[in-house]
Backbone:
């Protein structure tokens, strides 16, 4: 650090060997010492360096202190480094050298741009989040061919969506969803609502690229935003996502703006774009509904039923996450469109309040008993030679966990339904009856259950 601040003749010779120090603090201090010396005294030494780590950090120094006339030579020199022989941390440093050179000295053209594109795109996507962050950012800046397709594939990936921030904690919590009837629903909701940090990064990066889009790629990209607004981040999350969405919309053809604006979730937002528009929620009073409450509720009569309120309660209890009705919804559980033709109101309420009483073989979950004495419970989605692929969160069925087969001692069907109990505990009696009527009607507002109400009112 004594070489920081002003030129000293012996500074470069003393500091240079430490540019590849395993101590990153010393490595950093050495680079700063070099940067404080006249560029002409060490510029050629950068190009002549054979050690890849010293070369990388020499290039960082040159990107910070050199001039734009060196850009093409610097980029060509960086592409000569054997990427695969670097450690993951050294690869991060190399990408940082590329990033600084490009952002400070501008975008290359012609053969140099092609050379950089080919070098970097051959390593994208990478095996780690941090490398994919840097590579996607640089390749978007260069508008590299295929970067949109590759990044969209990462954006749409469904495995371990929270891996970039909390894989271990999320995995442990997912195990509790199907084990704990009291708190399982709250855990499932919390994990479902966590924004996938890495995916959010990809979406933001892609908002900056103007060329290379096709209608199919735009469709895939803007559809992601509609789903992203369902996550619950910090107070600035919605506004942050919407800024990326709005930035991307500036690149679409004017004739398609309204369409892409709609499918990306414009209708979900307030006029300010910083929060979601009001979503119907139960008024209560809240009640921990049990089987013994069913008959008294039905004895009071399924009358004065409100179709719109039933539809709102269907949305509020997130039934569509797992069930199809009228062609819309998820496929985790049975199709509910014809539910009212097959089951009585009492049967429907029993299945909602105590979902584990009767479980169809088609929708059962599986308990995996591991060699270490622990167990994992989830719905088996698929399997291959190496692992079972399971879904543990009914509110986020696409969040897939891999259970390595060599760690599984045995498995059997679980007696616990993937549908958590307590889904209707936020509803009051009238709201629950409106929900049951909506289920019986299969979402059809012209169903006879509502016509009966109109007849009674007319008689009065």
Residues:
């Amino acid at each position: 650090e004594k070489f920081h601040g002003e030129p000293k003749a012996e500074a470069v010779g003393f500091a240079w060997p430490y540019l590849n120090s395993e101590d990153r603090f010393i490595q950093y201090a050495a680079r700063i010492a070099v940067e404080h010396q006249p560029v002409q005294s060490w510029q050629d030494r950068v190009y002549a360096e054979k050690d890849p780590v010293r070369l990388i950090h020499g290039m960082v120094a040159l990107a910070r202190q050199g001039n734009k006339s060196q850009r093409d030579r610097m980029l060509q020199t960086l592409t000569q480094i054997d990427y695969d022989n670097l450690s993951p941390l050294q690869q991060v440093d190399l990408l940082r050298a590329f990033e600084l050179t490009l952002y400070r000295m501008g975008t290359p053209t012609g053969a140099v741009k092609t050379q950089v594109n080919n070098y970097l795109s051959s390593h994208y996507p990478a095996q780690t989040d941090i490398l994919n962050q840097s590579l996607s950012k640089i390749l978007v800046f260069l508008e590299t061919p295929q970067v949109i397709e590759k990044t969209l594939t990462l954006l749409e990936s469904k495995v371990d969506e929270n891996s970039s921030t909390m894989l271990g904690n999320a995995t442990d919590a997912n195990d509790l969803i199907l084990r704990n009837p009291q708190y399982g629903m709250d855990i499932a909701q919390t994990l479902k609502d966590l924004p996938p940090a890495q995916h959010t990064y990809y979406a933001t990066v892609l908002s900056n690229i103007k060329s290379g889009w096709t209608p199919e790629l735009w469709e895939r990209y803007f559809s992601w935003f509609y789903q992203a607004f369902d996550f619950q981040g910090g107070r600035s999350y919605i506004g942050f996502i919407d800024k990326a969405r709005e930035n991307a919309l500036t690149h679409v053809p004017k004739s398609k703006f309204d369409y892409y604006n709609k499918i990306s979730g414009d209708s979900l937002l307030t006029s300010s774009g910083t929060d979601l528009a009001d979503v119907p929620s139960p008024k209560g009073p809240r009640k921990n509904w049990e089987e013994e409450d069913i008959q008294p509720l039905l004895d009071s009569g399924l009358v004065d039923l409100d179709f719109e309120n039933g539809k709102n309660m269907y949305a509020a209890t997130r039934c569509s996450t797992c069930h199809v009705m009228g062609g819309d919804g998820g496929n985790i559980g049975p199709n509910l469109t014809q539910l009212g033709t097959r089951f009585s109101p009492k049967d429907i309420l029993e299945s909602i309040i105590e979902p584990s009483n009767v479980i169809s073989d088609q929708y059962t979950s599986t308990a995996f008993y591991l060699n270490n004495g622990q167990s994992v419970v989830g719905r088996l989605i698929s399997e291959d030679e190496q692992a079972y692929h399971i879904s543990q969160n009914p509110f986020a069925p696409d969040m897939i966990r891999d259970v390595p087969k060599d760690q599984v001692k045995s498995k059997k069907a679980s007696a616990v339904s993937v549908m958590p109990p307590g889904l209707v505990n936020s509803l009051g009696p009238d709201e629950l009856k409106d929900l049951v009527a909506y289920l019986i009607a299969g979402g059809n507002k012209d169903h006879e259950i509502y016509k009966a109400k109109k007849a009674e009112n007319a008689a009065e």
In short: The radius of gyration is 29 Å. Residues 159-171, 454-460 have pLDDT under 50 and may be disordered. The longest strand covers residues 375-383. The longest helix spans residues 88-105.
